[in-house]
Amino acid sequence: MLNIKSVYIYFVAIKIYLSKFLKDIYFQSNFYQNKLIEKKEIKIHFIPNSYLLSSFTNNKKFEFDIKQDFTNYLLTKSSEKKRFKQIHNFLWLSLIDRKNDGVVVRKMIDEWIKKFGEFKNNVWEPSLTSLRVISWILNADLVLNNKNIVFKNEYFKIIFAQINHLKRNYVYEENKMLLIEVLTAIMISGIVFKNHFHNYEFASDKMDKLLDNFLDRDGFPLSKNPKHIVKILKYLILIKECLKDAQYIIPDYLEEKIKICLRNLASIITPNKQIPLMNGPNEISLDIFLDYLKTFNYKLKEDKNTAHNVKKLKFKKDTIYFDTNNPPSRSFSNYYQSGPLSFEYFHEKNKVITNSGFGSNISDKATLLSRLTSSQSTLTINNISTVRLEKSKIINKAFGYLIKSNFSINNFKIIDENNFAGFEATHDAYKKKYNIIIHRKIMINKSTEDINGSDVILSTKVNSNIFDIRFHLYPGINAVKTMSGKGVLIQVNKNKSLLFDADGCKIDIEKGLFFGRNKIFNNYNIFLKGKLTKEKEIINWKIRKKIDVEAN
Prior knowledge:
552 residues; Glycosyltransferase; 2 domains
Protein backbone atom coordinates (compact mmCIF):
# COMPACT_ATOMS: atom_id res chain seq x y z
CA MET A 1 0.00 0.00 0.00
CA LEU A 2 1.25 3.45 -0.88
CA ASN A 3 1.77 5.83 2.04
CA ILE A 4 1.16 9.58 1.80
CA LYS A 5 4.78 10.30 0.82
CA SER A 6 4.68 7.63 -1.86
CA VAL A 7 1.42 8.97 -3.23
CA TYR A 8 2.95 12.42 -3.46
CA ILE A 9 6.11 11.13 -5.14
CA TYR A 10 3.97 8.97 -7.44
CA PHE A 11 2.17 12.04 -8.78
CA VAL A 12 5.46 13.94 -9.00
CA ALA A 13 6.83 11.05 -11.10
CA ILE A 14 3.80 11.18 -13.41
CA LYS A 15 4.28 14.93 -13.74
CA ILE A 16 7.96 14.35 -14.63
CA TYR A 17 7.06 11.81 -17.32
CA LEU A 18 4.39 14.05 -18.81
CA SER A 19 6.70 17.05 -18.71
CA LYS A 20 9.52 15.05 -20.31
CA PHE A 21 7.22 13.82 -23.07
CA LEU A 22 6.07 17.35 -23.91
CA LYS A 23 9.59 18.78 -23.62
CA ASP A 24 11.00 16.15 -25.99
CA ILE A 25 8.44 17.17 -28.60
CA TYR A 26 9.33 20.83 -28.06
CA PHE A 27 13.10 20.17 -28.12
CA GLN A 28 12.85 18.56 -31.55
CA SER A 29 11.05 21.55 -33.06
CA ASN A 30 12.79 24.02 -35.36
CA PHE A 31 11.62 26.82 -33.06
CA TYR A 32 13.62 25.38 -30.14
CA GLN A 33 16.67 24.56 -32.28
CA ASN A 34 16.79 28.18 -33.43
CA LYS A 35 16.69 29.34 -29.81
CA LEU A 36 19.86 27.36 -29.10
CA ILE A 37 21.89 29.10 -31.79
CA GLU A 38 24.44 31.44 -30.21
CA LYS A 39 24.00 35.03 -31.33
CA LYS A 40 27.39 36.27 -30.15
CA GLU A 41 30.61 35.73 -32.06
CA ILE A 42 32.38 32.65 -30.68
CA LYS A 43 36.13 32.92 -30.18
CA ILE A 44 38.60 30.97 -28.04
CA HIS A 45 40.13 32.85 -25.09
CA PHE A 46 42.71 30.11 -24.51
CA ILE A 47 43.09 26.41 -25.30
CA PRO A 48 43.14 24.32 -22.11
CA ASN A 49 45.47 21.39 -21.57
CA SER A 50 43.73 18.17 -22.67
CA TYR A 51 45.69 16.31 -19.97
CA LEU A 52 43.19 17.77 -17.50
CA LEU A 53 40.80 15.08 -18.73
CA SER A 54 43.12 12.20 -17.83
CA SER A 55 41.31 11.68 -14.51
CA PHE A 56 38.15 10.96 -16.51
CA THR A 57 39.72 8.53 -18.97
CA ASN A 58 42.23 6.89 -16.64
CA ASN A 59 44.52 6.93 -19.67
CA LYS A 60 43.06 3.60 -20.75
CA LYS A 61 42.81 2.55 -24.37
CA PHE A 62 39.35 2.54 -25.86
CA GLU A 63 37.79 -0.90 -25.70
CA PHE A 64 37.52 -1.05 -29.48
CA ASP A 65 39.13 0.73 -32.42
CA ILE A 66 36.91 3.79 -32.70
CA LYS A 67 38.65 5.03 -35.85
CA GLN A 68 38.05 1.83 -37.83
CA ASP A 69 34.28 1.82 -37.78
CA PHE A 70 33.00 5.04 -36.25
CA THR A 71 29.82 5.14 -38.37
CA ASN A 72 28.68 1.75 -37.12
CA TYR A 73 29.50 2.65 -33.54
CA LEU A 74 27.27 5.70 -33.82
CA LEU A 75 24.37 3.32 -34.43
CA THR A 76 24.93 1.58 -31.08
CA LYS A 77 21.62 1.41 -29.23
CA SER A 78 21.19 3.32 -25.99
CA SER A 79 20.24 0.04 -24.31
CA GLU A 80 23.92 -0.94 -24.59
CA LYS A 81 24.58 1.60 -21.86
CA LYS A 82 28.33 1.36 -21.37
CA ARG A 83 29.33 1.35 -25.05
CA PHE A 84 26.74 3.98 -25.97
CA LYS A 85 28.10 6.31 -23.30
CA GLN A 86 31.72 5.67 -24.27
CA ILE A 87 31.04 6.66 -27.87
CA HIS A 88 28.87 9.70 -27.35
CA ASN A 89 30.72 11.30 -24.44
CA PHE A 90 33.80 11.73 -26.68
CA LEU A 91 36.24 11.31 -23.78
CA TRP A 92 38.18 9.03 -26.13
CA LEU A 93 39.37 12.18 -27.93
CA SER A 94 42.05 12.52 -25.25
CA LEU A 95 43.42 9.11 -26.21
CA ILE A 96 43.82 9.95 -29.90
CA ASP A 97 47.26 10.41 -31.48
CA ARG A 98 47.26 14.20 -31.60
CA LYS A 99 49.97 14.53 -34.24
CA ASN A 100 48.66 12.09 -36.81
CA ASP A 101 44.92 11.70 -36.32
CA GLY A 102 43.62 15.27 -36.49
CA VAL A 103 42.07 14.83 -39.96
CA VAL A 104 40.35 11.58 -38.97
CA VAL A 105 38.97 13.14 -35.78
CA ARG A 106 37.55 16.12 -37.64
CA LYS A 107 35.77 13.79 -40.06
CA MET A 108 34.32 11.84 -37.11
CA ILE A 109 33.08 14.97 -35.35
CA ASP A 110 31.62 16.23 -38.60
CA GLU A 111 29.77 12.93 -39.02
CA TRP A 112 28.42 13.13 -35.48
CA ILE A 113 27.20 16.70 -36.06
CA LYS A 114 25.34 15.67 -39.22
CA LYS A 115 23.59 12.80 -37.40
CA PHE A 116 23.05 14.28 -33.91
CA GLY A 117 23.61 18.03 -34.21
CA GLU A 118 19.95 18.60 -33.46
CA PHE A 119 18.29 17.31 -30.31
CA LYS A 120 18.08 13.52 -30.00
CA ASN A 121 16.59 12.26 -26.75
CA ASN A 122 19.22 9.80 -25.48
CA VAL A 123 22.25 11.39 -27.10
CA TRP A 124 21.42 14.79 -25.59
CA GLU A 125 20.64 13.59 -22.08
CA PRO A 126 22.31 15.90 -19.50
CA SER A 127 25.24 13.76 -18.29
CA LEU A 128 26.27 12.64 -21.77
CA THR A 129 25.93 16.14 -23.18
CA SER A 130 27.97 17.66 -20.34
CA LEU A 131 30.87 15.21 -20.76
CA ARG A 132 30.81 15.61 -24.54
CA VAL A 133 30.94 19.40 -24.34
CA ILE A 134 33.78 19.29 -21.81
CA SER A 135 35.72 16.87 -24.00
CA TRP A 136 35.17 18.89 -27.18
CA ILE A 137 36.32 22.08 -25.47
CA LEU A 138 39.43 20.55 -23.88
CA ASN A 139 40.39 18.81 -27.11
CA ALA A 140 39.79 21.88 -29.27
CA ASP A 141 43.40 21.85 -30.47
CA LEU A 142 42.61 18.72 -32.50
CA VAL A 143 39.91 20.62 -34.35
CA LEU A 144 41.34 24.12 -34.56
CA ASN A 145 44.50 22.94 -36.31
CA ASN A 146 42.58 23.24 -39.50
CA LYS A 147 41.98 25.94 -42.13
CA ASN A 148 38.36 24.99 -42.77
CA ILE A 149 36.54 28.03 -41.37
CA VAL A 150 33.11 26.54 -42.10
CA PHE A 151 33.89 23.46 -40.00
CA LYS A 152 35.29 25.56 -37.13
CA ASN A 153 32.18 27.68 -37.04
CA GLU A 154 29.95 24.59 -37.12
CA TYR A 155 32.00 23.05 -34.31
CA PHE A 156 31.62 26.10 -32.08
CA LYS A 157 27.97 26.42 -33.01
CA ILE A 158 27.14 22.86 -31.89
CA ILE A 159 29.12 23.26 -28.65
CA PHE A 160 27.06 26.27 -27.68
CA ALA A 161 23.80 24.73 -28.84
CA GLN A 162 24.44 22.00 -26.27
CA ILE A 163 25.56 24.49 -23.62
CA ASN A 164 22.45 26.61 -24.14
CA HIS A 165 20.32 23.47 -23.94
CA LEU A 166 21.92 22.63 -20.57
CA LYS A 167 21.41 26.20 -19.31
CA ARG A 168 17.75 26.17 -20.25
CA ASN A 169 17.04 22.83 -18.57
CA TYR A 170 19.35 22.47 -15.56
CA VAL A 171 16.55 23.68 -13.28
CA TYR A 172 14.51 20.54 -14.02
CA GLU A 173 17.25 18.14 -12.95
CA GLU A 174 16.78 16.54 -9.51
CA ASN A 175 19.99 14.47 -9.43
CA LYS A 176 22.53 16.61 -7.58
CA MET A 177 25.59 14.71 -8.84
CA LEU A 178 24.38 15.10 -12.42
CA LEU A 179 23.83 18.81 -11.80
CA ILE A 180 27.50 19.16 -10.83
CA GLU A 181 28.42 17.70 -14.25
CA VAL A 182 26.04 20.07 -16.04
CA LEU A 183 27.24 23.18 -14.20
CA THR A 184 30.88 22.19 -14.79
CA ALA A 185 30.30 22.10 -18.55
CA ILE A 186 28.67 25.54 -18.48
CA MET A 187 31.47 26.98 -16.31
CA ILE A 188 34.20 25.59 -18.61
CA SER A 189 32.54 27.20 -21.64
CA GLY A 190 32.56 30.56 -19.87
CA ILE A 191 36.25 30.24 -18.96
CA VAL A 192 37.53 29.11 -22.36
CA PHE A 193 35.52 31.25 -24.80
CA LYS A 194 35.80 35.02 -25.21
CA ASN A 195 32.70 37.11 -24.50
CA HIS A 196 31.05 34.19 -22.70
CA PHE A 197 32.34 34.71 -19.17
CA HIS A 198 28.72 35.25 -18.13
CA ASN A 199 28.26 31.47 -18.53
CA TYR A 200 30.91 30.93 -15.89
CA GLU A 201 29.37 33.50 -13.54
CA PHE A 202 25.89 32.06 -14.04
CA ALA A 203 26.97 28.47 -13.30
CA SER A 204 29.48 29.30 -10.55
CA ASP A 205 26.80 30.91 -8.42
CA LYS A 206 24.60 27.84 -8.88
CA MET A 207 27.53 25.48 -8.12
CA ASP A 208 28.30 27.23 -4.83
CA LYS A 209 24.73 26.77 -3.60
CA LEU A 210 24.48 23.23 -4.98
CA LEU A 211 27.58 22.02 -3.13
CA ASP A 212 26.22 23.42 0.12
CA ASN A 213 23.04 21.42 -0.46
CA PHE A 214 24.82 18.22 -1.54
CA LEU A 215 27.56 18.00 1.08
CA ASP A 216 26.93 17.78 4.81
CA ARG A 217 28.72 20.00 7.33
CA ASP A 218 31.66 17.59 7.31
CA GLY A 219 31.91 17.74 3.51
CA PHE A 220 30.60 14.21 2.94
CA PRO A 221 27.93 13.66 0.24
CA LEU A 222 24.38 13.45 1.57
CA SER A 223 23.96 10.39 -0.63
CA LYS A 224 26.42 8.65 1.76
CA ASN A 225 28.17 7.33 -1.37
CA PRO A 226 32.00 7.58 -1.12
CA LYS A 227 32.27 7.43 -4.93
CA HIS A 228 30.68 10.85 -5.12
CA ILE A 229 33.67 12.35 -3.28
CA VAL A 230 35.93 11.19 -6.11
CA LYS A 231 33.54 12.46 -8.80
CA ILE A 232 33.09 15.84 -7.15
CA LEU A 233 36.87 16.25 -6.84
CA LYS A 234 37.40 15.47 -10.53
CA TYR A 235 34.96 18.15 -11.65
CA LEU A 236 36.01 20.82 -9.15
CA ILE A 237 39.72 20.33 -9.87
CA LEU A 238 39.01 20.52 -13.62
CA ILE A 239 37.30 23.88 -13.08
CA LYS A 240 40.07 25.19 -10.85
CA GLU A 241 42.88 24.21 -13.22
CA CYS A 242 41.06 25.81 -16.17
CA LEU A 243 40.66 29.00 -14.14
CA LYS A 244 44.38 28.95 -13.29
CA ASP A 245 45.39 28.46 -16.93
CA ALA A 246 43.07 31.28 -17.99
CA GLN A 247 44.52 33.48 -15.19
CA TYR A 248 41.15 34.03 -13.58
CA ILE A 249 40.55 34.36 -9.83
CA ILE A 250 39.63 31.09 -8.13
CA PRO A 251 36.57 31.53 -5.88
CA ASP A 252 36.90 30.75 -2.18
CA TYR A 253 34.10 28.16 -2.17
CA LEU A 254 35.96 26.14 -4.82
CA GLU A 255 39.18 26.07 -2.80
CA GLU A 256 37.27 25.20 0.38
CA LYS A 257 35.27 22.34 -1.13
CA ILE A 258 38.33 20.83 -2.84
CA LYS A 259 40.25 20.95 0.44
CA ILE A 260 37.52 19.23 2.46
CA CYS A 261 36.88 16.59 -0.23
CA LEU A 262 40.62 15.80 -0.36
CA ARG A 263 40.60 15.37 3.40
CA ASN A 264 37.61 13.01 3.25
CA LEU A 265 39.13 11.00 0.40
CA ALA A 266 42.36 10.61 2.37
CA SER A 267 40.40 9.21 5.30
CA ILE A 268 38.61 6.48 3.32
CA ILE A 269 41.06 5.41 0.64
CA THR A 270 41.77 1.72 1.09
CA PRO A 271 45.15 -0.07 1.18
CA ASN A 272 44.56 -1.34 -2.39
CA LYS A 273 43.92 2.25 -3.59
CA GLN A 274 40.15 1.99 -3.88
CA ILE A 275 37.20 3.12 -1.75
CA PRO A 276 35.01 1.11 0.63
CA LEU A 277 32.01 -0.59 -0.98
CA MET A 278 29.39 1.14 1.12
CA ASN A 279 26.23 2.81 -0.14
CA GLY A 280 26.64 2.81 -3.87
CA PRO A 281 30.17 2.50 -5.25
CA ASN A 282 31.79 -0.23 -7.29
CA GLU A 283 35.47 -0.97 -7.41
CA ILE A 284 37.39 1.91 -8.95
CA SER A 285 41.16 1.98 -9.11
CA LEU A 286 42.43 5.33 -7.89
CA ASP A 287 46.05 4.87 -9.03
CA ILE A 288 45.71 7.15 -12.05
CA PHE A 289 43.69 9.72 -10.12
CA LEU A 290 46.24 9.80 -7.30
CA ASP A 291 49.03 10.40 -9.84
CA TYR A 292 46.86 13.12 -11.36
CA LEU A 293 46.53 14.81 -7.96
CA LYS A 294 50.29 14.70 -7.47
CA THR A 295 50.90 16.16 -10.93
CA PHE A 296 48.80 19.21 -10.06
CA ASN A 297 50.15 19.38 -6.50
CA TYR A 298 47.03 18.33 -4.62
CA LYS A 299 47.99 16.59 -1.38
CA LEU A 300 46.03 13.89 0.39
CA LYS A 301 46.52 14.46 4.09
CA GLU A 302 44.46 12.35 6.44
CA ASP A 303 42.84 14.09 9.39
CA LYS A 304 42.18 11.64 12.25
CA ASN A 305 39.42 13.93 13.48
CA THR A 306 37.41 13.64 10.26
CA ALA A 307 33.80 13.49 11.40
CA HIS A 308 32.02 11.59 8.58
CA ASN A 309 30.46 8.20 9.27
CA VAL A 310 32.70 5.76 7.38
CA LYS A 311 34.95 4.98 10.33
CA LYS A 312 38.48 3.69 9.84
CA LEU A 313 40.68 1.65 12.18
CA LYS A 314 44.27 0.91 11.21
CA PHE A 315 46.73 -1.10 13.28
CA LYS A 316 49.97 -2.41 11.81
CA LYS A 317 48.99 -4.66 8.86
CA ASP A 318 45.21 -4.49 9.37
CA THR A 319 42.64 -1.90 8.28
CA ILE A 320 38.90 -1.96 9.02
CA TYR A 321 36.16 0.31 7.63
CA PHE A 322 32.95 0.51 9.64
CA ASP A 323 29.67 1.92 8.26
CA THR A 324 27.91 4.06 10.88
CA ASN A 325 25.92 6.12 8.38
CA ASN A 326 22.25 6.78 9.01
CA PRO A 327 20.27 6.21 5.82
CA PRO A 328 20.15 9.30 3.61
CA SER A 329 17.03 11.33 3.17
CA ARG A 330 14.66 9.87 0.63
CA SER A 331 15.64 12.26 -2.15
CA PHE A 332 19.29 11.11 -1.91
CA SER A 333 18.58 7.41 -1.37
CA ASN A 334 18.72 5.85 -4.86
CA TYR A 335 22.28 4.59 -4.22
CA TYR A 336 21.76 3.48 -0.64
CA GLN A 337 22.66 -0.10 0.32
CA SER A 338 21.06 -1.16 3.59
CA GLY A 339 24.06 -2.40 5.56
CA PRO A 340 24.08 -0.67 8.97
CA LEU A 341 27.25 -1.47 10.93
CA SER A 342 28.65 -3.48 8.03
CA PHE A 343 32.43 -3.53 7.69
CA GLU A 344 35.26 -4.27 5.29
CA TYR A 345 38.54 -5.79 6.44
CA PHE A 346 41.98 -5.61 4.83
CA HIS A 347 45.09 -7.55 5.77
CA GLU A 348 47.94 -5.57 4.24
CA LYS A 349 46.69 -4.76 0.71
CA ASN A 350 44.47 -7.82 0.55
CA LYS A 351 40.76 -7.26 0.99
CA VAL A 352 39.45 -10.18 3.03
CA ILE A 353 35.90 -9.23 4.06
CA THR A 354 33.84 -7.07 1.74
CA ASN A 355 30.37 -5.79 0.99
CA SER A 356 28.73 -6.75 -2.28
CA GLY A 357 29.28 -3.62 -4.37
CA PHE A 358 26.50 -1.95 -6.36
CA GLY A 359 24.76 -3.76 -9.20
CA SER A 360 23.38 -0.81 -11.19
CA ASN A 361 25.58 -1.42 -14.25
CA ILE A 362 24.49 -5.06 -14.47
CA SER A 363 20.70 -5.19 -14.30
CA ASP A 364 17.71 -3.98 -12.27
CA LYS A 365 17.65 -7.33 -10.49
CA ALA A 366 21.33 -7.07 -9.59
CA THR A 367 20.74 -3.53 -8.32
CA LEU A 368 17.99 -4.71 -5.99
CA LEU A 369 19.97 -7.73 -4.77
CA SER A 370 23.05 -5.60 -4.07
CA ARG A 371 21.01 -3.23 -1.90
CA LEU A 372 19.74 -5.94 0.47
CA THR A 373 21.14 -6.13 3.99
CA SER A 374 22.07 -9.77 3.33
CA SER A 375 24.47 -8.52 0.61
CA GLN A 376 26.49 -6.61 3.20
CA SER A 377 28.79 -7.92 5.94
CA THR A 378 26.40 -7.37 8.81
CA LEU A 379 23.50 -8.96 10.73
CA THR A 380 19.92 -9.53 9.58
CA ILE A 381 16.80 -10.65 11.44
CA ASN A 382 14.62 -13.21 9.62
CA ASN A 383 16.61 -12.31 6.46
CA ILE A 384 14.67 -9.01 6.28
CA SER A 385 16.45 -5.92 5.00
CA THR A 386 16.85 -2.98 7.34
CA VAL A 387 15.05 -0.62 4.97
CA ARG A 388 12.23 -1.11 2.52
CA LEU A 389 12.52 0.08 -1.06
CA GLU A 390 9.85 1.82 -3.10
CA LYS A 391 7.98 -0.73 -5.26
CA SER A 392 6.23 1.61 -7.68
CA LYS A 393 7.68 1.14 -11.18
CA ILE A 394 6.76 4.69 -12.15
CA ILE A 395 8.54 6.16 -9.11
CA ASN A 396 11.58 3.96 -9.54
CA LYS A 397 11.93 4.78 -13.22
CA ALA A 398 11.77 8.49 -12.45
CA PHE A 399 13.97 8.60 -9.34
CA GLY A 400 15.73 5.25 -8.96
CA TYR A 401 14.83 2.85 -6.17
CA LEU A 402 14.13 5.16 -3.24
CA ILE A 403 13.93 3.95 0.34
CA LYS A 404 10.57 3.96 2.15
CA SER A 405 11.67 3.37 5.72
CA ASN A 406 14.40 4.72 7.95
CA PHE A 407 16.35 4.03 11.13
CA SER A 408 19.10 5.58 13.21
CA ILE A 409 22.56 4.56 14.32
CA ASN A 410 23.38 5.54 17.88
CA ASN A 411 25.92 5.26 20.66
CA PHE A 412 28.99 5.26 18.45
CA LYS A 413 32.18 5.03 20.51
CA ILE A 414 35.86 4.77 19.70
CA ILE A 415 37.57 2.16 21.87
CA ASP A 416 41.20 2.65 22.88
CA GLU A 417 41.77 1.03 26.22
CA ASN A 418 44.27 -1.40 27.70
CA ASN A 419 45.24 -3.79 24.94
CA PHE A 420 42.37 -3.10 22.52
CA ALA A 421 41.48 -0.53 19.85
CA GLY A 422 38.24 -0.41 17.88
CA PHE A 423 34.72 0.95 17.76
CA GLU A 424 31.12 0.10 18.59
CA ALA A 425 27.62 1.35 17.77
CA THR A 426 23.94 0.35 17.80
CA HIS A 427 21.09 0.58 15.31
CA ASP A 428 17.32 0.38 15.71
CA ALA A 429 16.33 -0.79 12.20
CA TYR A 430 14.47 -3.80 13.64
CA LYS A 431 12.91 -2.05 16.60
CA LYS A 432 9.58 -1.18 14.99
CA LYS A 433 8.96 -4.61 13.47
CA TYR A 434 10.54 -6.93 16.07
CA ASN A 435 11.36 -4.78 19.16
CA ILE A 436 15.02 -5.53 18.56
CA ILE A 437 18.14 -3.37 18.93
CA ILE A 438 21.46 -4.44 17.39
CA HIS A 439 24.82 -3.59 18.94
CA ARG A 440 28.11 -4.34 17.18
CA LYS A 441 31.64 -4.04 18.53
CA ILE A 442 34.81 -4.64 16.50
CA MET A 443 38.25 -4.49 18.13
CA ILE A 444 41.87 -5.31 17.34
CA ASN A 445 43.95 -7.00 20.02
CA LYS A 446 47.21 -5.03 20.00
CA SER A 447 49.23 -7.99 21.28
CA THR A 448 47.95 -10.85 19.12
CA GLU A 449 46.61 -8.65 16.27
CA ASP A 450 43.46 -10.78 16.28
CA ILE A 451 40.17 -9.15 15.25
CA ASN A 452 37.58 -9.55 18.02
CA GLY A 453 33.94 -8.90 17.20
CA SER A 454 30.61 -9.20 18.96
CA ASP A 455 27.03 -8.77 17.77
CA VAL A 456 24.53 -8.27 20.58
CA ILE A 457 20.81 -8.65 19.89
CA LEU A 458 18.59 -6.96 22.48
CA SER A 459 14.89 -7.84 22.36
CA THR A 460 12.08 -6.99 24.78
CA LYS A 461 10.23 -10.17 23.89
CA VAL A 462 11.62 -13.51 22.84
CA ASN A 463 9.63 -14.88 19.89
CA SER A 464 12.07 -17.25 18.16
CA ASN A 465 13.28 -14.82 15.54
CA ILE A 466 16.13 -16.05 13.35
CA PHE A 467 19.37 -14.11 13.04
CA ASP A 468 21.92 -14.37 10.23
CA ILE A 469 25.35 -12.78 10.16
CA ARG A 470 27.24 -12.82 6.87
CA PHE A 471 30.92 -12.12 6.36
CA HIS A 472 31.31 -11.81 2.60
CA LEU A 473 34.75 -12.90 1.44
CA TYR A 474 36.39 -11.06 -1.41
CA PRO A 475 36.23 -12.93 -4.76
CA GLY A 476 39.17 -15.29 -5.14
CA ILE A 477 39.55 -15.91 -1.42
CA ASN A 478 38.86 -19.52 -0.52
CA ALA A 479 37.41 -20.81 2.72
CA VAL A 480 37.06 -24.29 4.23
CA LYS A 481 35.63 -25.45 7.53
CA THR A 482 37.98 -26.85 10.13
CA MET A 483 37.76 -30.51 11.07
CA SER A 484 35.96 -29.61 14.30
CA GLY A 485 33.32 -27.75 12.31
CA LYS A 486 33.62 -24.80 14.69
CA GLY A 487 35.82 -22.60 12.56
CA VAL A 488 36.65 -21.53 9.03
CA LEU A 489 40.10 -21.35 7.49
CA ILE A 490 40.42 -18.32 5.21
CA GLN A 491 43.09 -18.53 2.50
CA VAL A 492 44.06 -14.89 1.91
CA ASN A 493 46.91 -15.77 -0.46
CA LYS A 494 49.44 -18.56 -0.84
CA ASN A 495 51.47 -17.19 2.06
CA LYS A 496 48.76 -16.17 4.49
CA SER A 497 45.77 -17.87 6.13
CA LEU A 498 43.43 -16.66 8.86
CA LEU A 499 41.17 -18.57 11.21
CA PHE A 500 37.58 -17.42 11.78
CA ASP A 501 35.57 -18.85 14.66
CA ALA A 502 32.42 -17.92 16.56
CA ASP A 503 30.56 -18.80 19.76
CA GLY A 504 26.90 -19.54 20.35
CA CYS A 505 25.70 -20.20 16.82
CA LYS A 506 25.95 -22.45 13.81
CA ILE A 507 28.81 -21.61 11.47
CA ASP A 508 28.85 -22.49 7.77
CA ILE A 509 30.17 -21.47 4.37
CA GLU A 510 27.79 -20.51 1.59
CA LYS A 511 28.20 -19.35 -1.99
CA GLY A 512 27.52 -15.70 -2.59
CA LEU A 513 27.41 -13.02 -5.28
CA PHE A 514 29.70 -10.04 -5.74
CA PHE A 515 28.52 -7.12 -7.90
CA GLY A 516 31.39 -4.68 -7.42
CA ARG A 517 33.15 -5.14 -10.78
CA ASN A 518 30.15 -4.35 -13.01
CA LYS A 519 29.71 -8.08 -13.55
CA ILE A 520 28.44 -10.80 -11.25
CA PHE A 521 31.25 -12.77 -9.63
CA ASN A 522 30.89 -15.76 -7.34
CA ASN A 523 32.38 -15.61 -3.89
CA TYR A 524 32.03 -17.28 -0.51
CA ASN A 525 30.66 -15.95 2.71
CA ILE A 526 30.99 -17.13 6.26
CA PHE A 527 27.47 -17.62 7.48
CA LEU A 528 26.41 -17.55 11.15
CA LYS A 529 22.87 -18.55 11.96
CA GLY A 530 20.85 -18.97 15.14
CA LYS A 531 17.53 -18.56 16.90
CA LEU A 532 16.84 -15.91 19.52
CA THR A 533 16.16 -17.67 22.81
CA LYS A 534 16.79 -14.89 25.30
CA GLU A 535 16.39 -11.15 25.63
CA LYS A 536 20.12 -10.55 25.23
CA GLU A 537 21.78 -12.73 22.63
CA ILE A 538 25.55 -12.36 22.28
CA ILE A 539 27.42 -13.73 19.27
CA ASN A 540 31.18 -13.45 19.65
CA TRP A 541 33.42 -14.00 16.66
CA LYS A 542 37.13 -13.74 16.03
CA ILE A 543 39.61 -13.59 13.18
CA ARG A 544 42.86 -15.17 14.38
CA LYS A 545 46.32 -14.72 12.90
CA LYS A 546 47.92 -17.80 14.42
CA ILE A 547 46.66 -21.03 12.88
CA ASP A 548 46.93 -24.19 14.96
CA VAL A 549 44.11 -26.30 13.49
CA GLU A 550 43.69 -28.54 10.46
CA ALA A 551 41.07 -27.96 7.77
CA ASN A 552 38.80 -30.59 6.29
